[in-house]
Every structure is written in C-alpha cells, then in structure tokens.
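Is this the right way to post structure tokens for a design question? Let me know if I should format differently. Anyway, here goes:
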C-alpha cells in the first residue's frame, strides 16, 4: 500500500541520477531557492523564516515596509540571494533546528533532511546534512570508507581512532574553507592509532608499516601515502595547501586501511 501523502516520484521511486560534484565553496541559486521552498513546506511561516534568516545574517527585518505576506516573501528572496554562500548553509542548519521545535509528528526534520540531501545530490553540490549539521559530501567511496571506519573502530574499542576520523570529517567540512591539512593529519592519526593497536607497538606509523598484515604491494603504497602526508600534512610548504581532492583521497584510503586492519585482527582472533 502506498503513502497517500507522498508525491508521484516518491511512490514509484523515481529520482534524478546523482550529478558529479562540481560545487564546493558556493551556494547556487537552485539551492537558495530550494532551501526557501523546503522551509515553507515544513510549515515555517514567512515571518518566522525572515526572522531566522536575519538572525543568521545579523540583519534587522524591514518591519516598516514589509509587513504583508508578499512583501515578506520578496524580502526573504532578496536576503537569500544576497547572503554569502557559506551563510546559506548556516541558514539550512537553523531551518533544521527550527523545524525540530514544532515537529510534533517526528517526521518533518527527517523529510527536510531527505529532500535537502536530494537537492544536493541532483545538483552536484558537495555537501550533505547529517543530524542537523552540514558536512562535506565526497565520492561514494569516501562516504562508505568513513562510515565503515567509525563503526568498525567503535566496535573494536578504539575510540581514539574513531574520534580522529570524526575530526577529519569536521576539518574537511569547515566553512568557508576546508581545513585540508587538518583533515589529512587527523586521518593519518586515526590510521596510526589502529596500526599501534594491531601491531602492539608504540612507534610512529612509518616504522610500523612493515609489521602490519598488508599484502604486497599495498605495504609499499602505504609507505608512499605516509611520505605524502608527512610532506603535505606536517611539513607545509609556503603557499601550498593540499587540495580538497587530495585530502578526500587521504581520508578515504586511511579509513579503508584502518577498517581492513581491524577486520583482519578480528578474523585472526576468531581463528
């Protein structure tokens, strides 16, 4: 039986394919307009939305001239059009919070999250909302590796490593500019924590690699990754910050290798 309140595309599971991520440090018009419409769809009134947006932008609502519904809506459109790109994502977080204050059915926040993430995916916007927070959205491999890493690390009782991955995700999600150096440092710190746990050594990652249960040539590849991150994440060159794609790659690989090592240890202990 289908949900009578759902749309045609939802009932029959139609959706546009995910677009290639092309938007990072920007908030295109499709997002500014879409976010406004999603707020209205969640039953946030025009006046309440105007108050929310002005609070984020630290502006005073134009009560003197814009008191009617049409004028308020026009003011909202102007505010959203003129807002700095990163403030648009701040507004998205505040809208999610506002919805929760009156979400008596317990479904409106989830619906807002689902539809906003769909808007991001369909328009190649490299962000997503998780638990009310806007986070960087990477490739599918990035999403799977980081999610599996945190879950596996917690299950393996390596909370320090899990926290390092969490911090890497926070750094790569910073606005208006991602802290790519911090993301690399935290991702490799997570891998180092796992390597020490698996090997029983207190050495740094470099010397430990040869003692890890990694098949060749993956061990050699990990040595090269360690060298790259030591150069880019620790010994910074003036004017040379790691690119987002480079940080995404390091976080993905470090997370995946960590998961491999912890699962290998678990299988060895069972055997």
């Amino acid at each position: 039986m289908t949900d009578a309140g759902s749309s045609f595309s939802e009932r029959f599971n139609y959706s546009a394919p995910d677009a290639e991520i092309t938007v990072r440090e920007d908030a295109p018009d499709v997002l500014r307009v879409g976010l406004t419409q999603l707020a209205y769809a969640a039953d946030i009134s025009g006046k309440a939305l105007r108050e929310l947006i002005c609070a984020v932008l630290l502006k005073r609502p134009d009560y003197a001239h814009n008191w009617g519904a049409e004028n308020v809506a026009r003011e909202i459109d102007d505010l959203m059009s003129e807002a700095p790109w990163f403030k648009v994502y701040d507004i998205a977080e505040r809208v999610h919070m506002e919805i929760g204050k009156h979400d008596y059915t317990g479904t409106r926040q989830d619906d807002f999250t689902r539809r906003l993430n769909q808007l991001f995916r369909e328009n190649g916007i490299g962000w997503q909302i998780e638990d009310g927070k806007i986070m960087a959205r990477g490739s599918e491999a990035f999403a799977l590796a980081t999610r599996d890493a945190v879950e596996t690390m917690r299950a393996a009782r390596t909370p320090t490593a899990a926290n390092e991955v969490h911090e890497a995700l926070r750094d790569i999600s910073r606005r208006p500019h991602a802290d790519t150096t911090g993301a690399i440092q935290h991702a490799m710190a997570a891998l180092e924590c796992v390597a020490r746990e698996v090997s029983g050594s207190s050495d740094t990652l470099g010397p430990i690699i040869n003692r890890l249960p990694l098949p060749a040539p993956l061990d050699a590849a990990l040595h090269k990754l360690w060298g790259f991150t030591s150069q880019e994440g620790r010994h910074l060159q003036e004017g040379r910050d790691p690119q987002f794609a480079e940080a995404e790659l390091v976080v993905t690989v470090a997370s995946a290798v960590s998961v491999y090592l912890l699962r290998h240890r678990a299988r060895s202990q069972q055997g």
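Format looks fine. Someone answered above. Worth noting: The chain has two domains: 19-130, 140-270. The mean pLDDT is 91.
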